[in-house]
Write a structure and sequence with these properties.
Layout: H1 2-18, E1 39-40, H2 55-58, H3 62-70, H4 79-83, E2 86-95, E3 98-106, E4 114-120, E5 127-134, E6 150-155, H5 160-171
Antiparallel strand pairs: 1-2, 2-3, 3-4, 4-5, 5-6
Organism: Dyella telluris
Biased composition (Low complexity): 27-37
Region (Disordered): 23-45
Length: 174
Amino acid sequence: MRHRFIAALGIAAACAACSQQHDDHAPSASAPPAAASTGPVLATTPSSPSGLTYLYDLMQRPDFSTAFAALSGADQLPAWAKQGGVATPAQQVTVDGHTLLLATACKPHDCPSERILILYDENTHAMSGLFARRKPNAVNNADSNDPANDDLSWLGAPDEATKQLLQHKLYSPD
């Protein structure tokens, strides 16, 4: 019950953030809160006025945008996903001993319907991700933490550990 309240609170905050202009670079709570082992990434590249880095900031970096353009499946994504959408701060996560950036975003003005998570290795420029789109037959108030309500598209060629992390970050409110 507590997790559903937290998820509902996060969705409500995301909806409020969606109503703000994109130029404000205002962070939203559209994605589930990160696990204790992750934290916001301090900006070492162009970022928002808050000093945090968001997906739309990363899209401005030549290394990131080149890797994103080459990412298998990225050409099938909606325009908002290619521009960065409504995002939460990028975080550092660890997969199989490698530290990666995790950037998350959702569709402006309709976060529960489409969400994207991108993992990026700043050293090797390897990238993979997960795109979730609400199933056409799912009701409007369907639980956004229930994988049965989404069609998933893997971006790149993530291994099983990466897939597990991405699904956990997409569906776990903790």
